[in-house]
Backbone:
């Protein structure tokens, strides 16, 4: 599908900008990450995914016995591609849901870019990810709780691991756990963990 090529090229350029590698033109002005790694190669194993699950916040709950509850639902959408059977890249948007904290709400969301390592095992494959997330968080709370409130933004590290099961040539189910570091107003960087079950469509 021609529409996938601009998206794949953008992912490659984003990786170049993030890790500091030069992207130069080769045949047909296609950007090259390193020798032999081109958007065309990624496109051979490109995929789209959507995942739903539950997030666990490590942020404060304030004083006074306020309710401290994690969100019932969180999730993410992403696009990715494999350079080979073992190495790939993913770009996605993650929303950790809204947690009940200190008489108010705490939420986190962001854009994540990760490098992917993969171990194929027939229909199954294991993978791990390492990258960074540019996140936005928002905290509201009761004035008597003592919990800092407001909006914070910034970069934080991320990593995760999971299992993929190929249901068909173009379809797979994915079980995944990941951790993202977000900045929270008055609390510094705090981790938010996400466990999901999702679907991946390979094109």
Residues:
């Amino acid at each position: 599908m021609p529409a996938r090529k601009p998206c794949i090229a953008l992912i490659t350029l984003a990786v170049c900008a993030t890790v500091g590698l030069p992207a130069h033109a080769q045949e047909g002005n296609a950007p090259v990450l390193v020798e032999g790694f081109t958007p065309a190669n990624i496109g051979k194993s490109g995929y789209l995914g959507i995942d739903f699950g539950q997030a666990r916040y490590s942020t404060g709950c304030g004083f006074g016995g306020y309710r401290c509850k994690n969100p019932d639902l969180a999730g993410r959408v992403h696009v990715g591609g494999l350079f080979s059977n073992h190495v790939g890249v993913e770009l996605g948007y993650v929303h950790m849901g809204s947690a009940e904290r200190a008489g108010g709400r705490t939420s986190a969301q962001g854009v994540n870019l990760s490098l992917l390592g993969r171990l194929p095992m027939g229909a199954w494959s294991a993978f791990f990810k390492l990258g960074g997330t540019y996140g936005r968080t928002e905290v509201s709370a009761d004035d008597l709780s003592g919990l800092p409130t407001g909006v914070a933004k910034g970069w934080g590290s991320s990593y995760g691991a999971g299992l993929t099961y190929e249901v068909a040539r173009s379809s797979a189910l994915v079980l995944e756990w990941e951790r993202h570091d977000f900045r929270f107003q008055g609390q510094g960087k705090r981790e938010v963990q996400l466990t999901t079950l999702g679907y991946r469509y390979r094109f």
Observations:
- The two ends are 8 Å apart (CA to CA).
- The chain has two domains: 1-42, 45-202.
- Helices lie at 4-19, 39-43.
- The chain has a mean pLDDT of 85.
